[in-house]
């Protein structure tokens, strides 16, 4: 019987994903620090991200010795994925601006389960019983968070957070089932479409103080850099392990907002957030353990 050890590529992949998560953790905080109106904030964040991804796509094309058109023009599948990525970006920004950051991050943490359920009903993939049980628990907790603020100031933001999670889950499913998709081009066209849609409602001149600094950090550094690390790491480790590591964003992102701008999560969000994170962590751990058992049996 062969001994099963954690491979160096797997360990390396875990660290890459964790680094990516730590880089993106200030995202919610920086969006909240921007004082410009919601639509203007969304416009600049998306426009700067689009410009950065365009530059990355061009450099990537040069390395592959592609023409400019081939390097930047998306395929039909990349355009399809881009629609969901654009929806994710817009919903996230507007959600953060219209509800507690902790609400947004906890609701978005349910994305892996939503992606699994969409895979069942749309792509006809089988799901383990643990996924169904975890889904019921998590959705019950999310319904409690949304229901607690229903009719109040957080209603719109909570609903938009759910929209963010749904769009993100759809994006992961599209990219995951079409291996030929170039994620850089998909993200670029998605952020471009979202920029053009939101531009008429924005006034790019309404940025002042440190607003542009926070927006440049987001669009030109934090978002693209975190994506590079997370994508590179996720290719080296099981999806369950990547999902487990990604839960750290909900924890650290909420903690940063709490510490810097003193926005403490409500008791309902705190309790339900713990339930969501513990449930998702347990689900990912069980999936990872099952995956390693299969590897052991295959190695016998």
Automatic annotation (TrEMBL):
**Which InterPro entries has this protein been placed in?**
EamA_dom (IPR000620), EmrE-like (IPR037185)
Single GO cellular component term: membrane
Transmembrane residue ranges: 12-30, 42-59, 79-96, 102-123, 132-153, 159-176, 183-201, 213-232, 244-261, 267-288
Alphabetical UniProt keywords: Membrane, Transmembrane, Transmembrane helix
| Pfam family name, one | EamA
| Protein source organism | Thalassospira alkalitolerans
What start-end ranges are recorded for coiled-coil regions in this protein?
none
Out of the domains of life, which is the source? Bacteria
**Could you identify this protein by its name?**
Membrane protein
The EamA domain extends over: 14-146, 156-280
């Amino acid at each position: 019987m062969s001994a099963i050890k954690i491979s160096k590529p797997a360990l390396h992949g875990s660290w890459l994903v964790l680094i990516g998560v730590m880089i993106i953790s200030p995202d919610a905080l920086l969006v909240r620090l921007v004082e410009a109106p919601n639509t203007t904030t969304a416009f600049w964040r998306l426009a700067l991200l689009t410009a950065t991804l365009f530059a990355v796509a061009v450099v990537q094309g040069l390395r592959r010795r592609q023409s400019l058109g081939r390097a930047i023009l998306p395929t039909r599948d990349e355009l399809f994925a881009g629609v969901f990525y654009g929806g994710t970006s817009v919903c996230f920004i507007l959600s953060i601006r219209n509800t507690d950051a902790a609400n947004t991050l906890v609701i978005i943490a349910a994305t892996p389960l939503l992606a699994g359920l969409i895979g069942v009903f749309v792509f006809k993939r089988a799901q383990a019983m643990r996924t169904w049980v975890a889904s019921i628990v998590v959705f019950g907790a999310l319904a409690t968070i949304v229901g607690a603020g229903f009719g109040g100031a957080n209603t719109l933001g909570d609903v938009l957070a759910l929209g963010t999670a749904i769009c993100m889950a759809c994006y992961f499913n599209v990219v995951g089932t079409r291996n030929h998709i170039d994620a850089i081009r998909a993200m670029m066209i998605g952020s471009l479409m979202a920029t053009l849609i939101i531009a008429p409602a924005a006034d790019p001149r309404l940025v002042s103080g440190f607003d542009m600094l926070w927006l440049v950090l987001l669009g030109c550094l934090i978002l693209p850099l975190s994506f590079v690390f997370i994508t590179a790491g996720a290719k080296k480790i099981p999806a369950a392990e990547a999902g487990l590591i990604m839960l750290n964003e909900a924890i650290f992102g909420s903690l940063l907002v709490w510490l810097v701008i003193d926005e403490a999560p409500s008791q309902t969000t705190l309790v339900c957030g713990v339930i969501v994170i513990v449930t998702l962590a347990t689900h990912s751990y069980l999936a990872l353990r099952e995956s390693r058992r299969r590897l052991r049996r295959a190695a016998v």
